[in-house]
Amino acid sequence: MDRTVKSYEGDLRHLRDLIARMGGLAERQVADSAYALVRRDVELAGEVVSRDAPIDALEREVDAFCVRLLALRQPMAGDLRFIIAALKISQDIERIGDYARNVAKRAIIISGQPFLGGVNGFQWMAQMVQRNLKDSIDALLREDAELAERVWAADAPVDDIYTGIFREMLTHMMEDPRNITAATHMMFIAKNFERIGDHATNIAETAHYAINGAILPDERPKADISADLPSTQATA
Amino acid sequence: MDRTVKSYEGDLRHLRDLIARMGGLAERQVADSAYALVRRDVELAGEVVSRDAPIDALEREVDAFCVRLLALRQPMAGDLRFIIAALKISQDIERIGDYARNVAKRAIIISGQPFLGGVNGFQWMAQMVQRNLKDSIDALLREDAELAERVWAADAPVDDIYTGIFREMLTHMMEDPRNITAATHMMFIAKNFERIGDHATNIAETAHYAINGAILPDERPKADISADLPSTQATA
């Protein structure tokens, strides 16, 4: 095999490895932040906070490597789309890392207080978005357009759980003002998981484009639920 | 002048125009969402919601055009960095549009209730992040690395205002449970403006890289303030 071609393929493989590694780290951050939250594990939460920097560093590595690849290899068609997708997806993964870190920070703050409401909602949400994140990146790496479409359409249940948590926290706030601070943090935590789900959807959309060059329809089957809640709903 | 060169420059100019247009639309969305919020202008808020789609469409146009440019022109060095930057920045602007739409949606929900706290905080925050957004895109388009650095370092006041609003809303919640729903939306609105500021910082960072190829330091002078608040602070 031609040596240049071989090393070009090696380059593409390296880029795939970088994305896989970034995705793996982010998945773990999402899982651990949720675990730290529901188990009141301050130590683990602290680890999650400190483990965000390597994800940021990987994003920069992906960026620099993509620029190198584009400059030296002048890739075409599918390879070009994959590189563009890697650039965009690394940005999404970096944001996911930020949200997980934010969950961990808030988990530390409220660790001294009793857990408001059921832990199930948070665990489900975290598991779903972690799964969507994993699947969206798998879809990219395995060039599985069908899986990408599935993830892209799978965001609605996450939004439903988020809405449930949002309402539950409002109830806790109204029942006892001493719950207000913790419930507020819990709402923002739920919002963080919802945003992580959003970014997983973005990744799936980008992966789909990378695989077959076709862009998914404008309207995703998702809505910003809490902003769509009528204001009377919670105070009723 | 060589025709190919001329049309290559035309392509780059077109890409700059697309980014300028996207940035301009997003700026207006940020300004109008804040205006709709503080003036209780439901009609304007509705317009902001409906004006998000053109920004999303422009993001897709930027993506497609960048892929075309990379495939057909095989740009090098500064041009290549600019194209990569455009890809990343369009993603940031698209998110900013989402946040502005979310502000507008929440503004509609709480429009029937009296404004909690002072409007000044929100107006300042919105103006600051709108300014940072404008400056970060100007920095890219004018290749002004110094301006990019200035925006990159300018995010701290936004965070301070956000923290102030967050505390104020907690106080309103504790004073009267009937404020809880509206105060919660106000907190999320403030958080949206803070995130818009974050993305403006990202844009500045990317612009800086596009201009001189150098990456800004790992740690930005910004922190997620509400997650850093001790839990006792608000309940004290």
TrEMBL record, chains A, B:
- Name-wise, this protein is Phosphate-specific transport system accessory protein PhoU
Q: Where in the cell is it found?
A: Cytoplasm
Q: Domain PhoU: where?
A: 19-106, 124-206
Q: Which Gene3D superfamilies does the annotation name?
A: Phosphate transport system protein phou homolog 2, domain 2
List the residue ranges forming a coiled coil, or say none: none
Hey, which family's this protein in?
Belongs to the PhoU family.
What keywords sit in the KW lines? Cytoplasm, Phosphate transport, Transport
**What do we know about how this protein assembles, alone or with others?**
Homodimer.
Functional note = Plays a role in the regulation of phosphate uptake.
Identify the main location. Answer: cytoplasm
